[in-house]
Amino acid sequence: MRRFFLICSFYAAVTMQQAQDLPIWMTPDEKAQMPFVNYPYGVAGSREYNKYFLPPAATNLRNMAEWEEVGGYMVTYTSYKGMVRDIIKHGKKECRMYVVTDNVNNTINDLNNAGIDTVNVTFLVAPYNSVWIRDYGPNMVYLNRVDSLVFVDWIYNRPTRTKDDTIPLALAKNMQIPVFMTTQAPYNLVATGGNWMSDGMGTAFSSELIIDENKASGGFGVNHTEAEIDSIVKKFMGIHRYIKMETLPYDGIHHIDMHMKLLDEETLLVGEYPQGISDGPQIEANLQYVLNNFKTGFGTDWRIFRIPMPDDGGLWPSNGGDYLTYTNASFINKTIIVPTYNVPEDTTALRIWREACPGYNVVGINSTASIPAGGALHCITHEVGVRDPLLITHQRLRDTYNTSAPYKVTANILHRSGIQSATLYYTTDTNTAYQSMPMSLGPNGLYEANIPAQPAGTEVFYYIRAQANSGKQQVRPITAPAGFYNFKVLSTASNPDTHTPVTEVLNPFPNPSKGITCLPVNTASSHPISIAIYNTLGEKVQTVYEGYTKPGDNKFFINTLHFTAGVYYIRYKIAESETVKTLLVR
């Protein structure tokens, strides 16, 4: 009877608090109720739809990245309705908006009164507790990399918000998509969407909250080692490399989306405090840990953009201020919604976003209403993957001193119907037309084409377009031609490093490889060189050589006989220059 009384009292408290907007963190009432939650638990309510408690029976699972094409975006129409209406207004121009509500007519009237029609809006009638759909929404996974879309639903780390926990299944039923659930041993995993970033290539990032909540001491009825956590996300999400960072002292929810964002496979946007302020030192330590220990999936160094973390009226999180952040933003196809706070830093933040993501419609949405409750725009939105993705994965060209050899552009392009054609477009002046050239399928399984060599001082802009056999088309960046990749051809006269060698890194041969393989390099004089091989997860497979070149021809050798079949990246660092070559192992 005492337990029944406590549960009834708790739900009365939650009902009362819901009218006051539940924060993103666990309330004292919810913490008090934790010992009375039954474990293991899964989705509350209706259980009649297609859900599974074993990993998807497919190979090459792939968790989509947020910058990929989406078929829809989700919001829950409850707290902070002015913000949610703005999200719907901008999002419905890009994709279908799925709006969770308990009263469709009232929601339609609210939207209409704000001048927002319901074109491209689907209302999902479902119970809910809170607005924080990033944390309880379904995760997007493709079978066989680009084939069928499935949802993966983790154990929600707010177990007393049982209504929120029904929403992944409600969307799955609406869209007729199966759900795979990490709610039963040995695959029971507590996780939260705000503490998850994926590069779409098999690498994910989280804070060490993922470890803390899955310990026996975490209070969720789960007990996993870090290795077991890694195994579960590999089985359900296709994640082969799971990078975890220290939690921050003053971020009460420990979600990395409050200070970090992946912009593409090679680029991190990182929040920056003034030196020594608040979480600044730990954020910087975490970033340096990543930079010093992990390469991108292409085996290259990460590109870093920094964006200010503003104070809250003179207060920082370390002395009671709200956690104002610009990284808590969302990609919605060609639009990026970025939180703003009516502070001077807003202008700088929007400029940085536009510089980092050319061609996107970068929209600021006032988030002063939600940020005292611990979250902004990313926290109250969730992507819904497109059913029929045409995936273009590209390692961007970096600035170069090369003025004599062409610049090879490569891309991994996939669609379930196969690829009919791929085209490279480039220009040295965005005010003039792009030139086009067909991309051919190379021996390493990548599509490739060469941009002609350009004189020093030139800036080159380019993008890729592909068409599947089904007729579907896609470009990369998704904003092309308004958006683009770009690199500069630098002048050796302006190079501050007078020791930069004149080098030619030749293609490895044979390629594809199945045994002894030669890595030829030509240098005009002796220079320090390091050569290492990375897999597509950015993990170093082998250090080939560290030392010095001799003038003229240099030949280095590896034996790939015991390598796992697949694509590898050979990273050459010669003095201060860096070159990456692709090697296919069969």
Low-confidence spans: pLDDT under 50, at least 5 residues? 1-20, 42-46
Helix and strand content put the structural class at: alpha+beta
Mean pLDDT: 91
Q: Cα-atom Rg, whole angstroms? A: 25 Å
Could you please say which CATH topology of the largest domain applies here?
Answer: L-arginine/glycine Amidinotransferase, Chain A
- Based on DSSP secondary structure assignment, what is the total number of beta strands? 35
Give the overall silhouette. globular
Count of discrete structural domains: 3
Report the end-to-end length measured between terminal Cα atoms. Answer: 66 Å
CATH class identity of the largest domain: Alpha Beta
CATH superfamily of the largest domain: L-arginine/glycine Amidinotransferase, Chain A
What is the count of helical runs? 10
Secondary structure: helix percent: 10-25%
Largest sheet: 6 strands, mixed
If classified by CATH, what would the architecture of the largest domain be?
Answer: 5-stranded Propeller
The fraction of residues in strands falls at 25-35%
Would you kindly provide a brief summary of this structure?
Helices cover 17% and strands 33% of the residues. It has 586 residues and is an alpha+beta fold.
Structural summary, described in words:
Strands 1, 2, 6, 7, 8 and 9 form a 6-stranded mixed sheet that branches. Strands 22, 23, 26, 27 and 28 form a 5-stranded antiparallel sheet that branches. This protein has 10 helices and 35 strands. It is an alpha+beta fold and 586 residues long. The chain has 3 domains: 348 residues, 5-stranded Propeller (L-arginine/glycine Amidinotransferase, Chain A); 104 residues, Immunoglobulin-like, CATH 2.60.40; 83 residues, Immunoglobulin-like, CATH 2.60.40. The protein is globular and about 70 Å long.
